[in-house]
Design a protein that fits this description.
By secondary structure, the protein is an alpha/beta fold. Helix content is 36%, strand content 22%. It has six helices and seven strands. The chain has a seven-stranded mixed sheet, sandwiched between helices. It starts with a helix and ends with a strand.
């Protein structure tokens, strides 16, 4: 992501904060609670994350930490986001949980720590001025994981020229298969969305 791209993302979320409030689901870009939870449910099934380290890329309010806690109470969680206002909320809600840390950082450009599982829910759906952004970030995050990388993308957007971008699931799947033969794609759990699991 370029500096201009990051500014556009910041403005997008700031506008939604002004419309819905900084603690709302909508401020993060979700339509509603159900759409967020449906995506979390797909990522939850990627593997047994107990006794493993988990990196939540673009963690927002940190709600994935709470969602995973019921099934994987022994995971070691790290959330990273470049929106300080969201991180403040994540820290206030979940930093008291064991083995839980949050960091302010640009997950697109910064060097990330190696973790067992890397998850990206809603953080890869933004328009980029770089035509190969989505392929580069998938490659980067897959390299970052030791066990598996799971992410979701949009297959259709309401405003094609807006900040959110849609991808052809088959094209994304083909790219993932250039990195590993062990790839699983899920569709049909929610309109206009798909999830991919990539394993080392």
């Amino acid at each position: 992501m370029s500096i201009v791209d990051n500014v556009r993302i910041q403005r997008f979320h700031q506008s939604r904060i002004e419309d819905f409030g900084e603690e709302s689901i909508q401020a993060l870009g979700w339509k509603n609670f159900h759409s967020q939870q449906a995506r979390f449910e797909m990522l939850e099934g990627i593997g047994d994350m107990n006794d493993c380290s988990v990196l939540d890329v673009g963690c927002g309010h940190g709600d994935l930490r709470a969602y995973l806690d019921d099934k994987y109470p022994k995971m070691r969680y790290m959330g990273i986001d470049n929106m300080e206002v969201f991180l403040d909320i994540a820290i206030s809600r979940y930093a008291h949980l064991p083995d839980t840390v949050f960091f302010l950082g640009d997950c697109y450009n910064a060097e990330l720590p190696r973790m067992d599982y890397v998850l990206a829910s809603g953080s890869l759906i933004y328009h980029s001025s770089h035509p190969d952004f989505i392929y580069n970030i998938i490659t980067k995050l897959f390299i970052t994981c030791r066990v598996a990388f799971g992410f979701n993308l949009l297959s259709r957007v309401e405003v094609p020229e807006g900040i959110l971008v849609a991808h052809n699931p088959q094209v994304i799947l083909e790219h993932c298969r250039t990195l590993t033969s062990n790839v699983v794609m899920h569709q049909g759990y929610i309109d206009d969305d798909f999830t991919i699991w990539m394993y080392k």
